[in-house]
Amino acid sequence: MPAQQKKIIFCIAGVLSFACALGTAAAIGTQRWVKGMILCKTGALLVNATGQELEKFIGEIQYGLFHGERVRQCGLGGRPIQFSFFPDLLKVIPASIHVSVILFGTVLIIFALVGAGFFMFNAFGSPYETLHGPVGLYLWSFIACSCGCLIMILFSSEVKIHHLSEKIANFKEGSFTFKTHSEQFANSFWIILVCSLVHFLNALLIRFAGFQFPFSKSKDSGTITGAVDLMY
């Protein structure tokens, strides 16, 4: 492939990596990871609410990695309550998983920025063969993509397996018991998925630019090098 086309491909990959870093940073700082509805089970059972009456006992919950909000509704009107994970909910949530999600998010941002820098360096500079060249580009893209996948797996297990929404909804609730009525992943979670796919796309762009994968080397390269050495 001509050098000019390779520069364009590397520029596109670098811009995509930088955009992923910004998107991941914005996603981590927001509370739009999970949105759901919570049912005040105790209140609904007290008045035997059914049909339209049940709607008076359904509140809302929305949270991210650091903070969130829930609307406590038990038939007496909604009351929004703000909360933060640190340090309020550390005793309730699976803290090790939650902290791991944040750490992998930070690593994803770092390596997305590193990948963007090396893509631009390969586009306009003189790349080295190992660190800045195709091996390094594959490495940064692979690490960033892997971190994005780990974030989604860990956070999904925290929400679904450990019933994170119910634990948050019942935090410091003495007389009322809340149950998750419905929940779904929100925009920030899907941004991480898009960023992971973009880093996988960057690996394909490197291959499209004409670089072989690091583990696929031509068998004839050693023979050709030996012949050239003999000539000189």
UniProtKB/TrEMBL annotation:
Keyword line: Membrane, Transmembrane, Transmembrane helix
GO biological process, one term: sensory perception of sound
Membrane topology, record value: Multi-pass membrane protein
UniProt xrefs under PROSITE patterns: PROKAR_LIPOPROTEIN
Predominant subcellular localization, coarse grouping: membrane
Residues spanning the membrane: 97-123, 135-155, 189-209
Keyword check for Transmembrane: yes
Keyword Nucleus attributed: no
InterPro entries found in the cross-reference section: Clarin
Location in or out of the cell: Membrane
A GO-annotated cellular component: membrane
Sequence similarity: Belongs to the clarin family.
The protein, known as: CLRN1 protein
Originating species: Haliaeetus albicilla
